Every structure is written in structure tokens, then in C-alpha cells.
Amino acid sequence: MTVLERMKQAGVVPVVVIENAADAVPAARALLAGGIDVMEITFRTAAAADAIAAVAQECPQMLVGAGTVINVDQCRTAVAAGAKFIVSPGYSREVVAWCQQQEVAVVPGCVTPTEIMAALEQGLTVLKFFPANVYGGLTAMKALSAPFTQVKFIPTGGVSGGNLAEYLSAPFIHAVGGSWLCTKGDVSGHNFEKITALCREARAIADQR
């Protein structure tokens, strides 16, 4: 099963901010206990690379990737640490090209027809839509899917347990990304049972799609 197929099967891709690398493995295990086996660790903190490395080494059943990647140097660092996929908030031709050369799955952020066409020119059909709530959410993605029928979106931003079912029921949604499953506060506060419970709720919704 490919990385993108794993994301689709999971239905939700938790966006996880790790401030202390020691929290990475417990967070990953909490997600796994809730039935979610994909996680995106963001490059918003200095602990990101160490966190990815710890999960890659100690939780082999977890598909771990890097998020908020904005340049090729970060791609190199993330993949060297063990990241199996790269997610960018926007579209960078250089980042996409590097990932394709290394045969690493990449999901860039695209919210305009121009960005989507640029991604299609590089052979990508699964794209991040961020911030989804600011750029029109499901209404915008539905409109964009009309001319771009081959494109599937991973919306992030404004998605929650309350609207997850609505998002996942749309035919143009590949999966959804979100931080509500594994918040920075819950990770740093070691509220791992809460993370597991939220993942179980999301898993139940995803399984109904």
C-alpha cells in the first residue's frame, strides 16, 4: 500500500506539534491505540527532526511524515530522520521536484486553479487545501473539483470532530488533516488517554465513509 493509500485509509491525518522530542513516541502510541496509524509532525519546532526519528525507530507501525516543510533543506532533514512523506503549506516546485527525485510522497498546499495546474504539471493529484476554513472549505473544493476532476484534497484548518463526517462524505476529499486529535497542549500535558479517545471517535466516523 502506498503512502497516499495509507492516508486515504486512515481518513484523518493528525497534525502534531512536538515541543519536546521525548513526547513523540507516547503521542504516536496514543494515536495508534485510537486506530490512527498516520501522523504528520510539523517543522514548527526545533524538536521536529528528533521527534520524527524517535517515532520512525520506535513505532514502525506508524506512518510518520513531516509537515510545514517550506524548503528543500527541511526535506533533506526530515527524510534523513525517517519521514515517509512531506506536507507543505503552499506550493514549491523545488520541494516537489526534490521529493519526486527521492521517491518520497509529497502533498503541497494548493488553493487556486493556478497552483493546482502547476501541481498537475508535476504529476500530483492529491493536494493539501490550507487553511480550508479561510479559503472556502467544502464549497471552494467542490467548485475546484469541477474543472479538476482528477484532484483529491486533504483539507486542513477548521476541520474538527464536529464536521469531520461532512468533509469525509465529499467525493473530492482524499483525507482530512487536523490538530484537534492531538493538540500541542494535550501532547505537552501528557493527556494521551484523551488523544486516544478523540482518535477512536474520528476512526468511527472515517470507517463510515
Can you describe this structure?
This protein has 209 residues and is an alpha/beta fold. The protein has helices at residues 3-10, 24-33, 48-58, 72-81, 93-101, 113-121, 137-145, 164-168, 184-188, 192-206, and strands spanning 12-16, 38-42, 63-67, 85-87, 105-107, 126-129, 152-155, 176-178. The protein has a 4-stranded parallel beta sheet with strand order 3-2-1-8, with helices on both faces. The chain has a two-stranded parallel sheet with strand order 4-5. A two-stranded parallel sheet has the order 6-7. Helix 2 links the parallel strand 1 (12-16) and strand 2. Helix 2 crosses helix 10 (192-206) and helix 3 packs parallel to helix 4 (72-81). The two termini are 19 Å apart. The model has no long low-confidence stretch (mean pLDDT 97).
Percent range for β-strand residues: 15-25%
Could you list the spans in which at least 5 consecutive residues all have pLDDT below 50? Answer: none
Question: Could you say which structural class the secondary elements and strand pairing correspond to?
Answer: alpha/beta
Query: Average pLDDT across residues?
Result: 97
Global morphology: globular
Q: What Rg do the Cα atoms give?
A: 16 Å
The major pleated sheet works out as: 4 strands, parallel
Query: How much helicity do the residues have?
Result: 40-55%
Note the quaternary state here. Answer: single chain
Keywords:
single chain, 209 residues, alpha/beta, four-stranded parallel β-sheet, two-stranded parallel ribbon, 8 strands, globular
